[in-house]
Structure formats: C-alpha cells, structure tokens
C-alpha cells in the first residue's frame, strides 16, 4: 500500500455482528469484565508509569481490548497463546492473575515472574500463556511448537499467537505460517493491525495491497473481524477454532484496531494525526460499543455493567496497592532460575 | 562390549529414549526424508548424516517430524513444544546454521526459565560442528564457545561414541535447553558402547590420561589428537593430565583447577577461533583461580582468527595439529 | 500440497514459447553455448568428484541449465545476481571464468576465490556475481541490497536472486520479497523448483497449493516459465525485467525443472522414482529441446551446434587440465583476506 | 571546544559522512519514521533513540531508508549494498536483536572477503548494548564478546562522545564490516567533541589513567565506572593504568601487555557475561603473553552467568559496580 490508510473505515468484511446473542449472561459479563479489566489495568499502568513507579519499557494495549478478549474467551487453560511486547491485554484475557501482573510490572519479588521478567515477559505456563515476548516475531514459531504438542495429544487443544501489523513482516512469522500448514497444526494466527509499527504506519511496512491475501497465499483461511467489536472478533475466532480444533489445520483471523497510547510510554507520537485517538475513543471504543449493544438488545443492564466497572476498579486499585507494598527482589534472587541447579 | 560408531551410538540413544518416553519428539529437515518424493519411500534419509535413521517407521509422523527449511520455526517449535510439556530433539544439520535461528536460542530457550519464574524448556538441539571435510567457511565452524557464552543453555560436545550416547540420554532428560554438538570427523569413530541405558552427568569432565608434568584440556575431535600426542610424550617420560570436559557449559572447573594446581602448567587445545573462545575461557580460569600454582605461561592451541578455508591444505593449516600441540606442551614444560 | 506431484507435467501456464524467434544468431549461439558449458562443466565435475579430485560438498546443476541461462542472457556485468549452494550454473551463466571456477572447485591457489571458497562460494563481484551461498535463503536479502544500490544509481540496473523450492520456505526469502515491494526495488526473484529440497519433495515443504499465489500475495507479479525450455524462461525473464528495470518494482519468474544428479555428490536418492531422471533426460532435456527447436525453425544448423559442443568440450577439458596442474594454496594464504590489514 | 552528548556526536558523524560521501546510506526501522502515518510528518522519529534525526530531510528517501521489521533483510540489504559499492550504515535498535539476523553477520558479512578472494563489504551496523534501564533479558545484553569471537568483522564500543564520533567516521570509511555498539547508558553523557572531521583508528586503545600499581581494562559504560574507582584509589596512593580498548576486535593487545608487563597486575571490567567473554579474553592474553610479569591472579569483574534481570535491584546487583571493581583492584595489589 502506498496511500495512507483512511483512519476510520469499517474493516473490509466486517461481520455486522448481531450474533453475540448466542452468548449467555455469564459469558457476556465475563467478556465485558475482561475488556474492562484490561482497560483499567492499562490506564492505571499509564498513570503509575508517569509517576515513575514502573521500571523499564512498557507498551500499553488500551483500545485493542476487543481483540484479546474476543479471541481468548473461546479458550481454556488447556489451550496455549503466545503474545508480543504489548502483552498485558493478552495475559489478562488468558486468565493471568492481575495482581501478580501488576506486581511483576512493578518489579516485585512475588510478581508473576518473580520480578525478573517485567512488562515484556509476563508468562504463566499453567494458564497456557507462553509469554509476552520482547522479540518481534519470536512468538509465532513457539506457538507452532505448542500446536505440535496439541496435535500429538489429540485432545482438541489449540495454540494461538498474536501478531501485530509490524510483526507480520518478520521472516519468522512467515516461516511459522508455512510450517503450520505443512504440519496441519491446530493453530490460530490472530493478526492485530493497530495501524502502526512503532513510528511507522502499517501500510508502509506491509508492502502488498492486502495483507489478508498474503496470509491466504500461505494456504491459511482468514476470517476478518472488526477489532473494535468484541462480538465480531468472537465470531471470527469461533469460526477459526471450529476448523483448527477439528483437524482442519491452521487458520487466521484478521482484525483492524488502534492503540490509544504511544508505541511505548513516553512516545511523542509525531507520526499521528492530532485528533486520531480522540476520534477513535469517541466513535469506536470497544467498551462503549459493548454497552451500546447491551442497551440495544438487552443482554445486560447498565446496572450490571456498572457493577462490573466498580468491581474491576476495586481490583485494579488493590493490585496497585499490593504491588506498591510488595517486597522487592533480594540480591540472592539474581542467581536462581538460571538452570535446574541454580 | 559391542563396538559402535558415534553415529550408531547417537542413533541408538534416540531410539531408546523415544521408546522409553512418549513425550520425546524429533524434528528437523529430512530427519526422515522422502515426504513428497516420487519413490514413495519414507525414512529415505534418516537425517542427512543418517543419525535419525529408522525413527519414523518406529515412532510415526506425529513424533518424527520432517520440516521445511525454516530453522527459526524449527527451533521455535522445539521451544514451544518444550514449554508445552514435550521433550523435543531438534536437528540443525550444521551448527553454522544457528545464524538463521539464533534468536530462538539466545533470547528464547536460554531465557525462559529466568524470565518466566522457573518455566522449564527441556529441548535438545543437535548439530554438527567442526572442520576437516573441506566444507569451507559456512559448514565447518565450531560453535561451542559462542554458545557457552550464553547463560541459560547447556552445551555438550562428546569426543567419542560412548560419551555421545550417555550425554545424549542425559540431554533429553535434562530439564534445561541443551545444545548437543556432534563433530563430523567423529561420526565413524568407534569404541565400546553398552547396549543399555546410561547417562553421563553434565559438568563432569573426564581425566583421559594422568600425569604430573602438565595439564592438557582438549575438546571434540581434538581429544583424539591430544591423546596421541600425550601418549607419545609419555613414552619419553613427559606425563600429562589430559582432560576432556565433555560439556563446555556447565564446565567442570574443579577438575581442571585441581589438575593445574598439581601440574602448574596448562595447555588448552580447542577448535573454536581464538578470540573470546573456549581456550581463552579455560586459560582465564587458571589465571584467576590457580595462579599461585602456575609455573609457566598458559598455552593455547586454536585455529587463527580467520574463517575456515576451503582448500584441504589450508584447512589442515587452520586446524590444531599434533606438532603444534606437542610444541605447546614442550614449551610449558620447558619453563 | 498433500498429493505427490505428477512428475512430468507442463508448467501451469507454460508459454508455449515460439517467441525465441526474436533472438539473433549470436544470441542463440550464446544461449546454447552457455547451457552446454554448464552441462559439460557439471558432468565433468561429477566424474572428477567420483575420482576423488574434488574436496568438500558439491551440488550439481545439470538439468536446470535453461533457467540460469534463460535468466542471465538478459543481464550484463552491471546487473547483479546472487546464487545458492547449487551455484555453478548461475556463475557460468553470469559470465564467471570457467577455468577459474574449475580451479576453485579443485581448491587451487589461483582459483576464482583463491581456493578459499570452493564450490559453495564461487563469486566474482566484478561480473556482478555476488556469490554462491552455502546458507539457504541468505542470498535474497543480499540481492535486496544490491537492488538498493541499483535504484540509488538510477541507471536501469537490476539485481536478481535464485531461489529453490526448498529455500522458498525460509523466512529470509519472505522478508526479502516484502522489503523489495516496500522499497519498490529493481529486483527479480527467480524461483527455480527442481522438485526437491534435499531428500524431500517440493510439494511437502511448500505448504500451500500454489506457490505462485503465495508469491503474488506479497504484491509481486510472477511470470511462469517452462524450466526445461530456454526460450520460455528467456521470455518470462524479459517480461519481468521490463517492469523491474523501468521503476515498476520487484518481479518474479517461476520455473519448474529437475536436477539430474543427487542433492549432493554421493546422494543415494532413495526419495526418487528409479526412472525419473532417465525419463526427464529423454523427454525434457533443455539441450535436446534447444536442438530440436533449431532444427524445426532453422535458427541454427546442427553443424553450428556441433561446433559449439566441440568448443565447449575443449574448454572444459582445458579447465580440468589447468585445474589439476594449478598450484595449491600455501600456508601463508591462510592469513590473507581476513581484513584490510591481513 | 563544544560539549556534545554521545547521541549528538553520533548524529553529527552521520550527517558529516553522508554529506561528504554520496555512497553512504542509512537503513533500519524508523530511522526516519512517520511513513504511512496519519500526521503526514516524516523524520517523525529519526531512530527510536533519535540517532538518525534530520537525515531524511537532508539526504532523501533513497539514502535514508525506513524498513519493515525484517532484520535479516536489513542486514542482508546492507551486505548486498556494500558488495555493490555503497557504504551502508544499518541500525538494529538493540544488539539483542542480532538473534534474528545473525546469519547475515556470522556467515555473510564476516566471510565475504575471505571466501570471495578479497571482496570488500564496507558496511556498518549500529546497535545499542548494555543494561541499566530495566529493559530486561531481551533488551539489555552486551554482545561485544560474542561478536568479537567472529573472525572477519570488527567490533567497536565507544565509551564517550568524542570517541564515538571519531570511531563512527572511521567505521563508515573502513573497508571491513564493522559492528558499532552504542551503550544506552552513555547516550546523554557529554564531553568535548570537535565540530569537524576526525577519525580514530581501530585497534588503538587509550590509556585513560596512568599508574604503576595495576592495570585496569574496562569497556563501554564501565570505563566511566572504572575511572571513578581508579581516581578514588589514586587519592590514597594506589595508582592504576586504566585502558579503554575502544575496539574489542581488533584489540590493542600491545597496549594491554605493555602495561601489564609494568604493573604485573591485571583487572578486567566488562559487561559481557563471564563465560568465553571479553574479560576472559584479556585475562587469557595476559596469562599467555605476560605471564612472566604477572605477580597476582588476574581478576575479572563481570556480571554473573545469568540473563539480565528486570527489577532494578537485581539489575544493579547484576552489573559490575564500584565496590566490586575496587575490591578487585585491592585484591590484585594485596598479592
Ligand atoms: C526483532 C525485533 N525487532 C525490532 C523490535 C523493536 N520493536 C518493538 S515493538 C516494534 C513494533 C511492532 O509493531 P507491531 O507488530 O505492529 O506491534 P504493536 O507495537 O503495534 O503492538 C518494534 C519494531 C523488537 N522488539 N524486536
Ligand atoms: C540455512 C540452511 N539450512 C539448511 C541447509 C542445508 N541444505 C542445503 S541445500 C538444502 C536444500 C535446498 O533446497 P532447494 O532450495 O530446493 O535447492 P536445491 O538443492 O534443490 O537446488 C538444504 C536443506 C543450508 N545449507 N542452509
Ligand atoms: Mg502495530
Ligand atoms: Mg530444490
């Protein structure tokens, strides 16, 4: 693509998404709770980071919640996902402990990774969360391996990987796609185009006109979804899983979305139109959309959603308080978990 | 005891462990071979060097996995399978090729346990190392030094068939990522190798020869070379300890230091290039920890700081040879 | 692709190739001479190798001559190519000195690379031949760089890379394709499917049904050619070059062909049907085809072609004799050409 | 003379050399930035650390090339452009990322000249190294040791803004592939840097401090650390030679050996992990070539054999600090 993309367009084949109806109240509540948890978590990390409480590089997922949650609400702990440098949302969606995450991001001893991973490396193997990853494109081959394990076990489990628009140009991602097809693995590639790879627009780094055709060229069927709409993503992921869980080989979903913050905390965002985020927040926000949808079709009441908001607010507040008060690592922790013997 | 080549010993270890542990899988390019070919024959290669021969017929396609030429995806897949509870044994034909999949070793396998609060990634990556076949600059390198520099992985380099089998069984059962380096000049070397199950622990070197005049540390194909030299010198009364560390990470520092503390003299013979190499590593160890006992400059015998040349004459010149090893031993003893 | 490929089929869109007529007598003679030179060179290396005269790993190009020559007859020394581990054919087609090559393969001091490269690393930068390469997939990114230089100079030069069916699955090749599109480089990707990647059929490693669609998915136009037919390859390459030389960005040609020998010298070829090569030699051989074509349309006489055969035979004989008698490297050569100062 | 930060000095060198030599190009992710963005602003980043700021507006898109996230293609392209006669300066933000493009360094750039009968590939690859920003295991590594182990490339690691400018100008003009390592903790450090053109030759270290009691060799950000310690000790009469090699390959062995031959004592302070590291390399050099002069065990101060941890407390514990450097100097002197 050479022309700059029109910032607010419907995805090419957005499924107008009136199919969320099939979800139970519990499922709807869970989906909203997860998205809200990510939003609150990230908005709070943004604040804490600005206050100097958070060491290292932090990449926030705000704005993209519908993708992580739409994909992961289909998965259980027995399924695997692998994430990116922008991993908080995927981790929360996959069930990682939010307090443990907040502690980890604060570099505390009882953080989810013992304070040795930090924002870019949150993982919980027991939850099937194989890690955020600081190396762009490293996760997709790893997910191929998890899918090999799933196939060997033959229990209908799958592995999913999240891939940004920028990452989609990394050789490892292409290799993973081809290998997954060759081995007919139960693997779902979730492509998450948030418009930018650092300071560069997605349309620049992706040379071809249509990334979906590029993926399909590998022999992988792609379902497109509206990355701002939980129901749309949920539906696409459901279709992909129907194939991949049942021996149909790898599949993909493709979602366009946007990140509300800079690439990293501190990014001046010179590459972005001034009002871009504001417009998205106003017109496309996934939480606002979800509420509107609930109001329209009566799935959940405003009071119920407000209750979730309060509950999530309290959780995040508790996470921050606990993280602040959590013990810092001790010198001897430096020399643990290197090998089996130290 | 039956004599077996290192090729046979490694193949046997793979057969044994795949039979014993259903979580072991093997993957790589042509580990079986013949897929999509016109003869219809599978197991057509069993690895380009024949090390994985016979595995596919016995353990099937779900566990013996031919891959496209996509080394990042191969090692990445081994990483993911290991995190998901399997014990993958990946093959990268030539250690030189780690260039194309280095991230999956350097930043993934090596760091999972540390970054992920103790997560285990019990994978093995087998690859050939070393010069001697005129395979030139991109197919002859010895990567053990470079790999040993990476905290979080273990690096194994057997010098004979017996060790190869025991070390490979240990490697597969080990809960850490292990790089298993097979020297191409040793594949056809034979020695006595028991049929059954045995493992050799990591970080335990072996004293191949005993002697009080000097300590010689050698690795891989150079253990054989050094043994010849040490034996020749013994005949004239110059007796050396000869140590084969077997694993370069972890390294049996104690064995080396104990010996150096007795002999006061150290010669390191290694095939990695000299800068930041394994020979330097051992020399530094002695200079730090056994200085008081050292009675001569440490001598290292390595290739020069050049790529591996193609022409056989140059390759011979490149590799440590008996004359140079002998000269090094004599030089430290003359001090 | 899951089914094994039918070994002798016409390429999907083989241009029936009656367009060679546009070539002059000199061009026809040159094309035939180049193909014949490669054939004789390789058949002789095969013999010398079996006799133990050639050190190291050797991969022969016999059978695929029409591809290298069909592509390179369009190029001058000012254009760049980069080759693979199976590089002799590309080197000869690009104009490398045959005697120097034979010396190099024999490991001699005055070989084209001073005896330090060998079969897998023959190069001649002055001829625009950026090297055979022992690392599968390494050449394509390098050719991208050469194409950057061509574009910067703005003189209509191009860079071409040769990619096997096996190599086409390497991440670096995909990266190079995307990067070439992003930067709109004058680069031609020559895909050369000879049916096998070592001991594995091409259809196994290439997961998708149609590799051409996979390439097109990157935004690169592909011209398909019959890899056994010089004229077909020549025509496809001509079309690709018309685009790439004139600012149209990267292009590709895709050729199906076959190698007559094993993957490497010594390969028992258990993966191959017994009579496969024999049938190809009998029915599809590029030299036989070329002669038949000349006979049919009178472009060159049999006598003219026979004269080329004799000339080439003498050249290869001389190359072998000179190689045998050439001086071997000296010990001090080990320490030259590492850096600018030694 | 004007004071400039290392960031400014490097940026200035790039501007100067691009203006002087039309064959210099710059490529990498976001070296300009803003392409395809909605603000329409180019040069929106000028490199994620701002090192290439202002180049695109001045030298245009043909010479300042933003790339997709495809490091193999970036370094491959630099290789090909160099073979084709340009002088590319590629940027890989973090040296940790060499994992994804290592082949283009290890097997391509480093070996062209040797394999191809003297072919020149005058490329520079700039990348950040080092810990200190809690960037954790995949964004904090120091790769100079691992890279110095590769014959055929040169490895440069400036410790201050003045050296950075002169070494970078040399790197771009050098006919060999050069890896140029910028320590992220030094970017804002300032010193006097002339506006004009000057180069610093490779393989020439600098004697930062002079003294007869011990030789201290330090690299990168640790030169600053070591200077502080050495100055403090000087105040109490313990005087050390402090050597900054500036390039780890080639290494100024003579400068180090001459000093050690005089002081008889050696401390090496380096940020690479200890196994097969740069500290071991220098220690081995002394044990081989200056043994007769050595009067104490060689001491090395490096991080432990672990990945780089995230938490600031652990990262501080990981890095060599003043107390450890001081202890090491005192220990060799006490001998
Ligand atoms: C191998 C590698 N190259 C470059 C980087 C630096 N980097 C981190 S995130 C990023 C952009 C990723 O873009 P995208 O995949 O679209 O994900 P997003 O940041 O939009 O979530 C880059 C270039 C890296 N971490 N790893
Ligand atoms: C990175 C890398 N992986 C694997 C190999 C080993 N290898 C050499 S050639 C080859 C097969 C290449 O197949 P293809 O690209 O079809 O080329 P062909 O041999 O058919 O000419 C392989 C796997 C290598 N040299 N480099
Ligand atoms: Mg993005
Ligand atoms: Mg092939």
UniProtKB/TrEMBL annotation, chains A, C:
**Which cofactors is this protein said to need?**
thiamine diphosphate
One Pfam family, short name: E1_dh
Domain (Dehydrogenase E1 component) ranges? 33-331
Q: Which UniProt keywords apply?
A: Oxidoreductase, Thiamine pyrophosphate
Report the CDD domains cross-referenced here.
TPP_E1_PDC_ADC_BCADC
Source species, domain of life: Bacteria
Name the record gives this protein: ABC transporter substrate-binding protein
TrEMBL record, chains B, D:
- Report if keyword Oxidoreductase is assigned: yes
Q: Which Pfam families match?
A: Transket_pyr, Transketolase_C
Specify the Transketolase-like pyrimidine-binding domain's residue ranges. Answer: 4-189
Q: Which CDD domains match?
A: TPP_PYR_E1-PDHc-beta_like (cd07036)
The UniProt record lists the keyword Oxidoreductase: yes
Which keywords describe this protein according to UniProt? Oxidoreductase
- List the residue ranges forming a coiled coil, or say none: none
Q: What domain of life is recorded for the organism?
A: Bacteria
The protein here is known as Alpha-ketoacid dehydrogenase subunit beta
């Amino acid at each position: 693509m050479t022309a700059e993309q029109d910032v607010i367009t419907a995805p090419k084949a957005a499924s107008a998404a009136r199919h969320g109806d099939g979800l139970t109240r519990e499922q709807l509540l869970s989906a909203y709770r997860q998205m809200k948890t990510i939003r609150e978590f990230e908005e709070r990390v943004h604040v804490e980071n600005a206050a100097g409480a958070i060491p290292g590089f932090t990449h926030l997922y705000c704005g993209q919640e519908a993708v992580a949650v739409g994909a992961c609400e289909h998965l259980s702990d027995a399924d695997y996902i692998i994430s990116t440098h922008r991993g908080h949302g995927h981790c929360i969606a996959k069930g990682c402990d939010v307090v443990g995450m907040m502690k980890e991001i604060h570099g505390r001893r009882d953080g989810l990774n013992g304070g040795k991973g930090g924002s870019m490396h949150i993982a919980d193997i027991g939850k099937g969360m194989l890690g955020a990853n600081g190396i762009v494109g490293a996760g997709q081959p790893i997910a191929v391996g998890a899918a090999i394990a799933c196939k060997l076990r033959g229990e209908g489990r799958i592995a999913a990987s999240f891939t940004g628009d920028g990452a989609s140009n990394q050789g490892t991602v292409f290799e993973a796609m081809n290998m997954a097809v060759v081995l007919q693995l139960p693997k779902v590639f979730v492509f998450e185009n948030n418009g930018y790879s650092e300071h560069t627009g997605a349309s620049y780094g992706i040379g071809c006109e249509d990334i979906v055709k590029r993926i399909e060229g590998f022999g992988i069927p792609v379902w497109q979804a509206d990355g701002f709409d939980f129901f749309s993503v949920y539906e696409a992921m459901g279709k992909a899983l129907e194939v991949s869980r049942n021996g149909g080989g790898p599949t993909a979903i493709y979602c366009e979305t946007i990140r509300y913050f800079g690439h990293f905390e501190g990014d001046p965002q010179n590459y972005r139109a001034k009002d871009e985020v504001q417009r998205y927040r106003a017109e496309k926000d996934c939480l606002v959309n979800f509420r509107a949808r609930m109001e329209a079709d009566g799935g959940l009441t405003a009071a119920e959603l407000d209750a979730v908001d309060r509950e999530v607010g309290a959780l995040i507040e508790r996470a921050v308080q606990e993280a602040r008060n959590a013990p810092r690592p001790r010198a001897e922790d430096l020399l643990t978990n290197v090998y089996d013997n130290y | 005891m039956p004599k077996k080549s290192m090729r046979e010993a490694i193949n046997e270890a793979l057969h044994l462990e795949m039979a014993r542990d259903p979580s072991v899988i093997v993957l790589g390019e042509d580990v079986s071979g013949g897929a999509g070919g016109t003869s219809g024959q599978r197991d057509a290669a069993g690895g380009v060097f024949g090390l994985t021969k016979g595995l596919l017929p016995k353990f099937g396609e779900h566990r013996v996995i031919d891959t496209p030429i996509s080394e990042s995806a191969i090692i990445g897949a081994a990483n993911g399978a290991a995190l998901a509870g399997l014990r993958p044994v990946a093959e990268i034909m030539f250690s030189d090729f780690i260039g194309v999949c280095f991230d999956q070793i350097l930043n993934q396998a090596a760091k999972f346990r540390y970054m992920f609060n103790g997560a285990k990634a019990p994978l093995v990556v087998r690859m050939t190392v070393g010069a001697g076949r005129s395979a030139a600059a991109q197919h002859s390198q010895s990567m053990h030094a470079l790999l040993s520099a990476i905290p979080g992985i273990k690096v194994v380099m057997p010098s004979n068939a017996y060790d190869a089998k025991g070390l490979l069984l240990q490697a597969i059962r080990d809960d850490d990522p292990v790089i298993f380096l097979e020297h191409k000049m040793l594949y056809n070397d034979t020695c006595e190798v028991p049929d059954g199950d045995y493992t050799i622990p990591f970080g335990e070197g072996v004293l191949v020869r005993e002697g009080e005049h000097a300590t010689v540390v050698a690795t891989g194909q150079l253990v054989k070379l050094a043994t010849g030299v040490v034996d020749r010198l013994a005949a004239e009364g110059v007796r050396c300890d000869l140590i084969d560390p077997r694993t370069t990470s972890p390294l049996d520092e104690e064995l080396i230091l104990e010996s150096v503390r007795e002999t006061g003299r150290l010669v390191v013979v290694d095939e990695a290039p000299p800068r930041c190499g394994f020979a330097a590593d051992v020399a530094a160890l002695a200079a730090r920890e056994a200085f008081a006992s050292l009675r001569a400059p440490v001598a290292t015998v390595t290739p020069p700081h050049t790529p591996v040349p193609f022409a056989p004459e140059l390759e011979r010149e490149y590799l440590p040879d008996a004359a140079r090893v002998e000269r090094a031993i004599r030089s430290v003893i003359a001090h």
